[in-house]
Write a structure and sequence with these properties.
- With 357 residues, this protein is mostly beta strands.
- It folds into two domains: 247 residues, Neuraminidase; 78 residues, Sandwich (Immunoglobulin-like).
- It has two helices and 29 strands.
- Strands 25, 26, 27, 28 and 29 form a five-stranded antiparallel beta sheet that branches.
- A hairpin with a 2-residue loop joins β22 and β23.
- The chain starts with a helix and ends with a strand.
């Protein structure tokens, strides 16, 4: 009977995992495109009103607050400390705004002469820029007083967004209707197809091995398993959207900016929960959510244990081996958000989702 109940529970979770509940987070926006989350603040690039706004996602009725105005078609945004980087699509500029300065804030030029710059991604001191107009990914060193633009990969088809998983840079090729990837450690990076046949691919978000993709012309969000044989096939997650642009994942929710004026939120079930259900590793975490430190307690002592901590985009933060382990503390030194802790033995493994507030 217990075995049957366990199977029923797994089936129920699988059913839940394929359903979504939609909530409108905020409406009345003017062509929202890229979005990013910093703590409880959701930053929104409003192309139609030439400004960056933010809302508090914990508010019952979020009200947009202007962060910086007077821009020229802002498309991409990225936050590094107190510096907000912004791409102006048609003027071909990368700008920077100090968020500690009083409003109205002034944006300063970092790089000019770009060709329809869109998505941004930071890896160490290297700021990657997707240039749709000349079909390439370029980068600059943000610590340089006079940044020099260096090409990373060329010959793409209108690259718009990027996502980094380890050394693999995933690139959304809008007019190529595909996601490709390159190894940024290679001396001469070459793009490899990950998934093709998309309908104008846009923003991406990674949850474990699930890569979520906005398909702009199909008005939907799809996903693929990046561990499957490539190129793979995308499956639908959410349909019936209104020109989906930016997407991000936070605490089991998928946030989507819809170009005709709103931010929506969809509740999704993480497959990690299913792994925890069937694993024989019995573990308790507390506090979770936490403010930087989590205690991991095991029901029984484990031998030959490997623990790997990654952030929400798959970057490895900590990897440690234990000959014998009964409990331990994990310190989350990074930014607020979701982390994944994978615990492996020679016979079993489980992955825990940790939330730092």
């Amino acid at each position: 009977m217990k075995k049957l109940n366990l199977i029923a529970a797994i089936v129920l979770l699988l059913i839940i995992g394929n359903t979504t509940a939609q909530t409108t987070v905020v409406s009345g926006l003017n062509k929202p495109r890229s979005i990013l989350l910093n703590g409880n603040d959701l930053y929104i690039a409003q192309t139609g009103s030439n400004k960056i706004s933010k809302i508090d996602i914990t508010s019952a009725s979020p009200t947009p607050i202007d962060v910086v105005a007077g821009l020229d078609n802002p498309f991409g945004i990225l936050l590094n400390g107190n510096d907000l980087y912004i791409t102006e699509y048609y003027s071909g500029k990368l700008l920077k705004v100090d968020l500690t300065s009083p409003f109205p804030r002034t944006a300063t030029d970092v790089v000019t002469g770009l060709s329809n710059p869109y998505g941004l991604l930071l890896n160490g001191n290297d700021l990657y820029i997707a240039q749709e107009g000349n079909n390439r990914i370029s980068k600059i060193d943000i610590t340089s007083s006079s940044p020099i633009l260096t090409d990373v990969v060329i010959g793409l088809r209108n690259p718009s967004h990027m996502l980094l998983n380890g050394s693999d840079l995933y690139v959304s090729e809008n007019n190529g209707s595909k996601i490709s990837k390159i190894d940024i450690t290679a001396s001469a990076p070459v793009a490899t197809d990950v998934v093709t046949g998309l309908n104008h691919s846009g923003s991406m978000a990674l949850d474990g091995s699930d890569l979520y993709i906005s398909e702009i012309s199909a008005n939907k969000i799809s996903k693929i398993d990046i561990t499957s044989t490539l190129p793979t096939t995308a499956s639908d997650v959410v349909t019936g959207l209104d020109i989906p642009q930016g997407i991000l994942l936070y605490d089991g929710d998928l946030y989507v900016s819809e170009l005709r004026g709103k931010i929506s939120k969809f509740s999704i079930t993480n497959n990690v929960d299913i792994v925890e259900l069937v694993s024989q590793i019995k573990v308790t975490t507390y506090p979770n959510p936490n403010t930087g430190s989590v205690h991991i307690a095991f029901e029984k002592e484990l031998n030959d244990v490997e623990m790997v901590l990654t952030n929400i985009v798959g970057k490895e933060i900590l990897k440690k081996h234990y000959d014998i382990l009964s409990n331990t503390d994990i310190v989350l030194d990074g930014a607020k958000g979701i982390y994944y802790l994978t615990i492996k033995t020679s016979k079993d493994q489980t992955t825990l989702r940790l939330l730092k507030n």
